[in-house]
Amino acid sequence: MNYIGIDIGSTAAKTVVLDGEKVAASFILPTGWSSKETAARIKDRLDGSGIDVGSDQTKVIATGYGRISVDYADKVLTEITCHGKGGAALMAGDCLIIDVGGQDTKIITVEKGTVARFLMNDKCSAGTGKFIEIMANRMGVDIDELFTLAQAGTPIPISSMCTVFAESEVISQIGAGKSKEDIAAGIVESVVSRVALLASRHDSSAKCILTGGLSINPYFARRLAKKLGQEVVTHEMGIYAGALGAALLAADKFK
Amino acid sequence: MLNLPENFQSYSEARQQGFMRMKGLKENGKMVVGTFCTYTPTELILAAGAVPVGLCGVSDEPIPFAEKILPKNLCPLIKSSYGFAVSDTCPYFYFSDMILAETTCDGKKKMYELLNELKYTHVMQLPPGRNSEMALEGWHSEMLRLKEVLEEQLGTVITDEDVRQAIRLKNRERKATLDFFEIGRLKPTPLSGYEVSTVIDTNSFLFDTEEKISLLENRTAQLRKDYEENFAGKPSRPRILITGCPSSGVREKIIRQIEELGADIVGFENCCGPRAQKDTVDENKDPYLALAEKYLRVNCSVMSPNPGRIEAMEEMIEDYQADGVIEVILQACHTFAIESDRVKKFVTTEKNLPYLCLETDYSQTDTGQIGTRISAFLEILQG
Questions:
Q1: A115 contacts B355? CB cut-off 8 A
Q2: Is position B314 within any domain?
Q3: How many structural domains are present in chain B?
Q4: Residue B259 contacts residue B193 (beta carbons within 8 Å)
Q5: A242, B14, B206, B329: which could join A7 in a potential S-S bond, CB 3.0 to 4.6 Å?
Q6: What is the span of the domain harbouring residue B40?
């Protein structure tokens, strides 16, 4: 029996295949402009590995912003529930999950194995992966390079709460001849502060895990841990937390 | 599923039809007083032989007009209300002979100063709290001052008997409204929150209190019968209590969406709900003092402190058998936004129920994000 979790986010589409209880496969595709096409590409990719999503030996739960585009899903659940399940599995128990994604940031508290409460950022993209992406573009570097630069710099504070205004601030810093390293450090620090502020509203003493696209960067996790004053765990499967949770929930619900 | 009666009239249909009713009333020489809030003692307007009409803005259409003058970062209800007036797109504002308002929140009271430039606006000085003796004294004298203002502006004389009669009529309307709201206590409820929210607002365009009472009584009787025949003994969907800011402006985006996503809204602990109806005006007292007492008890977050709201919420959570509480905060509504911390703690730690806070405005741009939050909340409720 295959249990599949598909998490179509704003930037990346994550798929996890469980064979029984162990992860048999996982892969990431860029979401692109159409989540319907992305869902079709995931289906093809699974087909190529000999997994037919239409068979009754396969159960699919779709989640994430593009969840409704997965027309072959057996069930659709929100990314909150799936991240809660996936994060708790990675932490082997109750925890605080900080998920920094491309479009939004989620803070999820898992108690007794289920989501007890959650918070999401408001309409603005400040405090999300999108902010880093926009600023990296503005500085003419990619996201990994931005983090490398940031590690060598001393943050110049960015005061604007809004991504668009913050971009203007960065432009004036570039214009004023500030060092790339210091500007990059300021950009990362701005996201760290926004995420930490949101997380502090949950007032949780549970173990904390960082998931989502930014969890692959150890520097970001370190800065976040410093700001929060508590350990922030990352996991190689952190970016797959939502898809993993969806697959685990498929296993729970359809067993 | 959204369960609506056959002859259900949408808010915009009813609002349109109300225009002609109001035109007819005006042609027959009726005076009209525009109002904004549950703090407004509408009894005195009725006693003056005039017709009260609610002018609270619930649409985002006129907001760009308001933003030419008002700050962008202001509550959408205030911007919408002012926008309708300044763009001259609300016939009810147009037909009003005067406006009656109160010093409730900072945004509203300052907006009323600008509104007064468009049409005569009498602003009652509502005390900011109830704990000092001056509060009731001052509010009582504001009732007496209002009587004089109405007499002068509308060219009429208000007798004590007129006021007593209006009090009795409004108390009957409150009873009929409350009985209608309390259908939501049945489990499963035969009445959708969407219908409650729509009916209360559309009834305000009838301008005839007796007609309102009879419509409500008929619908309540129909719903009781419907419950016995089709609902009793059946399983219930998760039951949601709505609290926070006025929710009429987010009726489609939040109220409808919650019910379409699989829950029942069983009650409203806000000014669109039974809060103001449960508490009647004492018919045996001096009428002006009785009005002052009643309208000082309204549990809006503009009052400091405001413990009555938590008490009302506790009662509603129990009586309406709520499984979860969703708070609606309109962007830049400071008093409700700050009070939400107390509400969250009360709901989650004292009542042990899940709580969700949705901060939004009247635009449609966050419909998807709001939907995700509601779905996730319902997934928590359903385990």
A1: no
A2: no
A3: 1
A4: yes
A5: A242
A6: 11-156
With a cut of 0.85, is the ipTM above it? yes
CA distance B115 to A104: 39
Residue of B nearest to A122 (CA): B359
Q: Which domain holds residue A57?
A: 2-82+241-254
Is A116 within 8 Å of B365 when comparing Cβ atoms?
Answer: no
- Within a domain: residue A112? no
Residue B290 forms part of a structural domain: no
Would you call A78 and B348 a contact, using CB atoms and an 8 Å cutoff? no
Give me the mean pLDDT over the A71-90 stretch. Answer: 97
Q: What is the number of domains present in chain A?
A: 1
Overall size of chain A counted in residues: 255
φ/ψ of A22, rounded to 5, equals -105, 150
Judge whether A249 lies within some domain: yes
Residue positions counted in chain B: 383
Strand order across the A75-76 sheet: A22-30, A12-19, A2-8, A58-63, A75-76
Count of beta carbons in the 10 Å neighbourhood of residue B136: 15
Confidence of residue B1 (pLDDT cuts 50, 70, 90): low
Residues of A in contact with B369 (CB under 8 A): 104, 120, 123
We report the CATH number of the domain holding residue A22 as: 3.30.420.40
Neighbour-count burial for A46-67, b at 16+ CB within 10 Å, e otherwise: beeeebebeeeebbbbbbbbbb
Residue B80 belongs to a domain:
yes
User: Chain B: residue nearest A76 by CA?
Assistant: B375
- Answer whether residue B18 is part of any domain: yes
User: Which of A65, A78, A123 shows the shortest C-beta gap to B376?
Assistant: A78
Residue keyed to tokens 């379409």: B260
pTM metric for this prediction:
0.94
CATH of the domain at B67: 3.40.50.11890
